[in-house]
Structure formats: C-alpha cells, structure tokens
Amino acid sequence: MVSSGSPEHTGFKAPAPLDAAPRTRSRVMMACKDIADGFRLWRLAATLGWLDIRLQFSGSTLGPFWLTLTTAIMIGSMGLIYSQLFHLVLKDYLPYLSISIILWQTGLSALILESCSTFTRATETLRSVNMPYTVQALRTMMRCGIVFSYNLVVPVVVFLIFGISPGPDVVLALPALLLWLVDSVALCLLLGCACARFRDIPPIVGSVMQIIFYITPIIWEPKQVAAHAWLLYFNPFYSLLEIVRRPFLGQIPSATSWLIAGATSVVFCLLALFVFSRSRSKLAFWV
Amino acid sequence: MSGSVFDAGRVAPGTSSISIRDLSLDFPIFHGGARSLKKLLFKRGKAALTSSRSLRTGGEVRMDRPDGGPIYVQALDDVSVEIRTGERVGLIGHNGAGKSTLLRVMAGIYMPDAPNVDIRGQVAALLDVNSGMNPELTGRENITLMGRHKGLNTAQIRQLEQDVEEFAQLDTFLDLPVRLYSSGMIVRLGFGLATAITPQILLMDEWFMAGDFHFRERAEKRLSSVVNNTDILVITSHALDVLEEWCTRLIWMEGGQIRMDGPTAEVMAAYRTDMQVPDDKA
C-alpha cells in the first residue's frame, strides 16, 4: 500500500502541539509499549471482535452464515461462467477459484479495507477510556479472522464435492497464515492512523484494491500468462497470496514467494511502527 | 485487584502523584478540506512552487491556513499542577475553561507521551456518561468488557457483575441494550462500574451528579468508601456545595489557564465574589 503509506512523511507533522518541548521519552519505545500492553489485553480484543460480529448479524437467523451463503453463490456462478470463458475444466478450475476468492475477498482485501476504520470506529472509546490503541488493531484482526473462518467452509465443501484432498502439504499454510496475522496488526496500525487523519484515504484504498484484484492471479491462473509469469513477482500481493494458496492446492509455494512475502511484511511492520509512533499522541484529537 | 494480569501503572500505596509542568495544549479542529489528503498534497505542491512562509502565529484561535488547514484552539495554556497523595481536588470554572481537557490529560487520553506530564498510580476516569460503553450491547456485556479491560479473569468478572448489579438496581434492564436506558439508568450503570474497582487516582467529570435523589444518596455513600481508599481524587463540577463537601483544594480555571489554586474555602470565596453568586452560608 505504497499510495497510502507515503503521505505520512508530509502530512503528519501538522498538528503537533508539543513539538518544541524536549522529547525525553522515545516515541518508538512508547509505541512498542502500547503494542505490548495491547497484546496483554488480547482477551478484551477477542471479546470486542466477537461482539462486533454478533451485533452485525443480530436479528438474522442464519447469522454470519449469510456471508458463507453469499460467497458460495458468487463462487458457484463465477466458476461456471469463467470456466466457459477460459475454456477450463470445472473440476480443475472451481477448487482453484474457490480458495483464491476466499483468500482474497475475505482475507487480504477485507483485512485491508477493514483496517482503515480501526480507530475511527472506536471514537467513543478512544476519547473516554485510557486503553492501549493496539487493542483496536487486535479487535479488527479478530473480526476479520472470524469472518474469514466462516467463509473457509466454502472451499472445503467444493473440495469435498470434487473429491480433492490437498494432502499433507496443507500444513505449510499455517506459517503463512501466521505471517498474515502479523501483517494484519501492522496494517491496522498503519492504515488506521492514516485514515483517522485523512478521511479520503479509505475510498483511495478501495480503488487500489479493486485494481490489485485484476492484476493479481485470483480468477485467472499464473500459468495463463506463462511466458510473463515472472512479472507477477513485482506485485507483492501475488506472493502474499501464493504462500497461503499453494499449500491448499497440494503444492509447495516457491522460495521466491516466501522471500518476497517476508520482505513485504517487514516493510509493513516498519512503516506501521514509524507511522503509529508518530501519530499515537495525536490519535485522540483525530478520531 | 489481586491476580489481575494488568495492574496498569499501579504504584506502592501512598506514592501516587500527578505532576504537570508548563503544559500547553492546542486542539486541532479539522474542517472542510483539512481532512483530505488530496487537498493537502495539492496545497503542499502549490506552496512549494510559490515561496514558503512561517506558519505559526500567536493568539487564542489560530487561522494560519485560512484555505482549509486545521485551526488550532488553545485549550490549555501553560498549566502547571502538582497533586500529591491524599489530596481531594476540585476543578471549577466556566464551560470551556479547560477543566475537562485537563482531566483528560490526567487520564492519559490526551498527550499520553508528553514529557512534562507525569502521572503515577492507577487511574480510573469517569469522563462522560457512556464512559466507553457500547450502546448496542447489554449492560451485562458492557460489564464483561470493562472487566476484560481491567484484566480480570472470568470468576472476577462474575464478582464484578454481581457487585454492579446490586448497586445499579437495574433488574431486567441489565439484559437489554444500553441504548434503551434512560440517562439516569446509564449513570447508575456507569457509576457502579467505575467505582466497583478502587483505583489509586479517581478522575470524575460532573455527569455523575445526574440521577434521582434516592440514587444520589447511595452514590455518595459508595463514592465515599471509594474515595477513602484512593490516593487522589479530582472532580469537576458546577455544584459548588458538592465541591465544598468533598474537596480539600480547588483549582479555578479560566481561558485555559489556572486563575487560582489553593484551599477550598479561599478559592471558593474568591470565585463566588467574582461570579457574584450569593453566598448562601452567609
């Protein structure tokens, strides 16, 4: 998310009421303490995340399974249409499509879009309770995680229908999903702060995610651009997706994918720490 | 609080203190284009092409960027306060004098990293009626959240729930969403919650004076038991009789500055003269 990561250098200096005063306590240290305190309150974050989901679906009988149903219908219809368009065998294509769509739409994409409202959703709390800001990031992560796991039912059912099993390699998805969790906290802190200050960032992020959806192999397969497949590595979201997707398809993700995904995550974390440590003391005024 | 994993900032009994030195606080007010990244970048670009000028000037309300940059309102102007264990401090002054802002600074909500603000001791703040309660959730769920925030385990949360239930006397309303409560009921719940766990520093904004007479009597009883166990109490209120009863020291705020700071009787006398409030005790 370079487009929303760069403005911090310029825009975040403006409301600095205490810039002239000597900084005896390091901003980065205070931010790290906030993150550590936030993790110690993980039970609170988990409860908040659960309650968010429950409130969102209160009054509907199916509850969060509405999401599952919607996703199932979408994947079914997309599978039928695109397998015709691309001249693919449904048995090969539908499992690929189902896992890709889930990982993108309710995984990476949902996380990035939700992370924008990490702090703006919690205005009341931030203004009246002294609570580590990281709790809100963990809450967003929890919420996305719950929605994600509800939707994971869809590819599982597709795999069962077609009698496909990913085999033992599927365990390789676990470290990759762990990396996603780290990224999600970083993105919540990064985009959460940026979007609290600049309210036009969420729509920009939305447009960017739309573009990334088309340039990343999600509904199409990398092998369809065989000769130019190496170009895909310039898109870090491709690697982030591959390290989780390949194990589900019974394949081992390439070392290059892991390397790029790891490097991207490090960049996310450093950017997040930079932006969060600079905006932390002003967040209460921004939300 | 024994067994809690998160005794945030708890210090040895009797060593709590609040120390604020020369604190000034400007509120950024975002309006119009100040919230827009596109506009900001565009303006920066334009400014770089023309010549740059100095941005900050003095004054109460700063409009240094009339084209839509944030306006700053000075809420606190060079405020210094030292409060030690055992003090019961009341904040008085007009609306907008900076009382609530000062209270939020003490609670660590505004400027948590400022080097000239040093708060020692575990703080509980009753800043607004909702106090971070989620209006969509039931009272019981809000109690659970509060307990989780304090790092209590499930058994301790059950205990907290019982305690608050007994005090608030909301009966069946406790299982309904807080948004359905009357303002008095919200106060009962919020007050019961905030005073269920005795903090070392208790900060209260004036809202806790709401509620019917019967409730106020019980609230004061409960509050006195809490206050006797806290190291520091800071309250703001317009109810002068309440301040006279509770406080040993008054701080009179005006226009973001401290106008007077001293023993209750002294400050109250000066304040009454200034406000021309007839002294009902005379």
TrEMBL record, chain B:
InterPro entries: AAA+_ATPase (IPR003593), ABC_transporter-like_ATP-bd (IPR003439), ABC_transporter-like_CS (IPR017871), ABC_transpr_TagH-like (IPR015860), Bact_Polysacc_Export_ATP-bd (IPR050683), P-loop_NTPase (IPR027417). SMART domains: AAA (SM00382). This is ABC transporter ATP-binding protein. GO terms for cellular component: membrane. Residues 55-280 form the ABC transporter domain. It holds the Pfam family ABC_tran. The keyword Protease does not apply.
